[in-house]
Amino acid sequence: MADIIQLLPDHVANQIAAGEVVQRPASVVKELLENAIDAKATSVTLVIKDAGKTLVQVTDNGSGMSVTDARLSFERHATSKIKSAEDLFNLHTKGFRGEALASIAAIAHVELKTKTEDSEIGTHLTIEGSKVISQDPAVVPKGTTISVKNLFYNIPARRNFLKSNPVETRHIIDEFHRVALAHPNVAFQMLHNGSDVFNLPSSNSRQRIVNIFGSKTNEKLVPVSEETEILKIEGFVLKPEYGKKSRGEQFFFVNDRFIKSPYLHHAVSSAFEGLMKNDVHPGYFLFLEVDPHSIDINIHPTKTEIKFDDEHSIYAMLRATVKHSLGQFNIAPVLDFERDKGFDTPYDYSKKQPTAPSIEVDRDFNPFKEKAKQGNINFPFKREQTQSWESLYVGLKDETAAVPGLGDIEFESEEVTGSLFENAETETGQTTFQLQNKYIVSPLKNGMMIIHQNLAHQRILYEELLKNITVKEAVSQQLLFPLQLHFSKLDIEIIEKVREQLEHTGFIFSELKGETIEISGIPVLILESHVVNLLHQLVHDIKEEVPDNGFSQNDMLAKSMAASMAIKTGVSLNREEREHLINQLFACKEPTVSPTNKPVFTTLDVSDLDKKFM
Fold it and tell me: 231 and 181, same structural domain?
């Protein structure tokens, strides 16, 4: 039998390795930014075009590379970070596998310009699909500039799997945040299609968080600090009232490396237990320092997962530290056993006898005198003699009977009889009931119909909002005092993109710039107190889905707003509200399903009930 196993060519092996390392343009951004940090750069600039599909360029002022290093950096398993297997457990740098640049060069056009501080002239290297096109001397500043163009140009199937530009840009910004937050002492700048997205000066951790997420973030932060023999914790958690339904602002860093850890996330969430609702997630920016020998970061190609030697101890310390910080800054109730000496009795008063207080009373005071004297001013009071109070009610019974309609008034003292359904009304003609403040039960000819009130209201609002966005005939209610809301710059840009559609639903924006939004009018279907939550949820949904322009964007907008504005589970509805909701539901085009394709109601036949009693 002929041999069938053969060695793969280098360019094929590089493309396979690129599948693990480079999943999307954000993966290239992550690797290049981490290389710039490892080169001890103090200033890093990221330039992207078309969400990184056309260009990803990173420029730093780090140590640079020599001619030989520049060429070897694109070879597989070539690295300056480790020399032996033992170095894998004593890592102080970001990248160490030596596969990133080789994988990137296998699936893109790469251009490298680099120079060390000691060299008089630098190197200009061009590679296309792992093939070196040119390597020439060049006059370049100290540091390194890597340009990655036409990503996945030789793997069109992989390029077709990339999402839309807004989605890919969102992933790039996420990677940029992770590197920038971990290194506040490094100045970062990000440009997208020629426009300035971020310009972060060198600062401390708190200022870096505020510069990225907006100036209003400063008042939301609660400092966290603890140091033990095993672990050092620094950073911030957000106050419980600023929790969100999405898991956006949650960052763990171990030895300045961003990680994802559901186990540690549970530790932080348990520290907030009792302070937040079940469907709300806390925000945090926590920096952990541990001994490099006690962790293994080589268990995932992207190095975002870490194995700890003693996870249980770290869990307990993290939970206790966050809980202590919340109590220390009066966020959570605590028992304080330390006595405040300010409340102690002074030593001089310890042997003094207490004296009874003296009270002076004017025994001649009579409020029923005809004349009361206050100072030198006389105030005459003349009390008119009236008949006894019973005379005020003479003939009232007869008059009540004569007035039509007053005899039907129900009084609170009337006896209330029990009912099969909770909060059921006892008036005649009752056709609907509310069950557990969640379902509306309506009898049918051959059974009953059970309607989910939240999903039903979502369907009603969804069709109405979609109609308003399309027809542009929404009604607004003017606010007496305009609302001033604060968002990050990225969130403001997202709202600006859908501003026209929001105005068609009834919003009126009097100002939208910087980090501030001023709203002078809102849709009639929403309460003023719900506007902030609605916009936050809308921004989150756009970040997650990011539809292209057109009907899909209007559809997503209507779905998000309907979910935020709909009647929630637990809200009690009276008879008129229940019947109005049912009438509106069956006036919709698709009353059977919610905007997210969940069933709105179900029917229960009498025969089904009969089977329960057999």
Answer: no
Q: Give 53-77 pLDDT, tens digit per residue.
A: 999 999 999 888 888 888 888 886 6
The amino acid at residue 568 is K
- Please enumerate, as own/partner, the contacts of 449-452 that have beta carbons within 8 Å and a separation of 24 or more: 449/601, 449/602, 449/603, 449/604, 450/601, 450/602, 450/603, 450/604, 451/581, 451/582, 451/585, 451/600, 451/601, 452/598, 452/599, 452/600, 452/601
Q: Are the C-beta atoms of residues 41 and 62 closer than 8 Å to each other? A: yes
Q: List the beta strands (DSSP E) in 37-108.
A: 43-49, 55-60
134 shares a domain with 245: no
Task: Supply the pTM of this predicted model.
Answer: 0.69
Q: What is the pLDDT of residues 402-413, one digit of tens each?
A: 555 555 555 554
Residue that has been written with the tokens 């390392």 in this structure: 21
The strand pair at 516-523 and 476-486 is best described as antiparallel
Answer for the pair 197, 178: CB distance below 8 angstroms, yes or no.
Answer: no
Residues 113 and 245 reside in one and the same domain:
no
Per-residue pLDDT of 304-348, as tens digits, reads 777 777 888 889 999 999 998 888 876 665 555 555 566 666 666
For tokens 């609660």, what's the residue?
222
Cα 38 from Cα 20, distance rounded (Å) = 22
Q: Residue 321 belongs to what H/E stretch? A: helix 311-328
Helices and strands, number each (H, E), in the chain: 17, 24
Q: What is the CATH number of the domain that holds 575?
A: 3.30.1370.100
- For residue 96, pLDDT beyond 70: no
Contact 72, 101 (CB under 8 A): no
Same domain, residue pair 46 and 193: yes
Instruction: For residue range 550-576, list pLDDT tens digits in order.
Output: 457 788 888 888 888 888 888 888 888
Backbone dihedral angles phi then psi of residue 395, each to the nearest 5 degrees: 80, 5
> What is the β-pairing status of strands 143-149 and 109-115?
antiparallel
How many domains does the chain contain in total?
Answer: 3
**Separation of alpha carbons 581 and 455, rounded Å:** 11
Distance (Å, rounded) from C-alpha 209 to C-alpha 558?
32
Note down the domain range covering 482.
452-585
Q: What gap in Å lies between CA 318 and CA 268, rounded to an integer?
A: 7
Q: Are residues 221 and 189 in the same domain?
A: no
C-alpha span between 212 and 199 (Å, rounded): 9
The reply to whether 80 falls in a domain is yes
